[in-house]
Design brief:
The chain has helices spanning 2-12, 19-28, 82-90, 114-120, 122-148, 151-166, 175-182, 186-198; strands at 30-34, 39-41, 49-55, 58-63, 69-75, 97-100, 104-110, 170-171, 202-205, 208-211. By secondary structure, the chain is α+β, with helices and mostly antiparallel strands.
Length: 213
């Protein structure tokens, strides 16, 4: 198991390629596999670990005052969750929901080690700062999309981003999952997807969307 984890760290998390840090992760990290639609982090719960994504995809969202899901961002291989880091280090309960959008594997890092590693390992500290920077940029993009772009444009961008992240033109997503990510309803998303199909931009299948252009 240690050899498998070490290989994962050296190939998926090259920015963490510091010998002392890798040794600490090998001694304290654990590999986990979760199923599609499995909840990894629930709102109100105290976060006990930070996930380093090996493969798969995790959707991060939160509930607004009306109980409606608001999509924030996705986590992909080589990434971790900035909001989880913040909740851990401030010792506050989770404000987010993290759900696997497909079978996903991640390395869990115990919360109790974060402060120590931030001081001890420059590579870990830089990784956290870069995580905050990337997630901040994604949140700004999300706000811009909601405020300034029509839903059909946001849908096209969402599908394109998912395709790039998964390196596949075929996305295993239901209309409801897409609606949740875009803060819309399944009916509206289905109507827009059918229009994109008529325009020759996508092909719709059972629980999948294939990009044609």
């Amino acid at each position: 198991m240690a050899e498998v984890l070490e290989q994962i760290l050296r190939t998926r998390f090259k920015s963490l390629n510091d010998e002392a840090l890798i040794q600490d992760i090998l001694e304290n990290g654990k590999l986990h596999t979760c199923n599609k639609e499995e909840t990894i982090i629930s709102p109100g719960a105290y976060i006990k670990m930070v996930p380093l994504i090996v493969y798969g995809s995790i959707r991060i969202s939160r509930l607004d005052n009306d109980g409606k899901e608001v999509y924030l961002y996705h986590l992909h291989p080589g990434q971790t969750c900035a909001i989880s880091l913040n909740c851990c280090m401030s010792m506050k309960p989770s404000e987010i929901t993290a759900i696997a959008e497909e079978e996903t594997e991640f390395v869990s890092i115990p919360v109790m080690l974060l402060d120590e590693w931030t001081v001890k390992h420059k590579a870990w500290r830089n990784f956290m700062f870069e995580t905050y920077r990337e997630r901040f940029h994604e949140l700004i993009e999300t706000i811009d999309n909601i405020a300034f772009h029509k839903l059909d444009d946001r849908l096209v961008k969402f599908l394109s981003d998912q395709s790039k992240a998964s390196k596949s033109k075929t996305l295993n997503l239901t209309h409801q999952q897409i609606a949740n990510s875009l803060g819309s309803s399944r009916e509206v998303i289905s109507r827009l997807l059918k229009q994109l199909e008529r325009d020759g931009k996508v092909k719709l299948g059972r629980n999948e969307v294939s990009l044609l252009s």
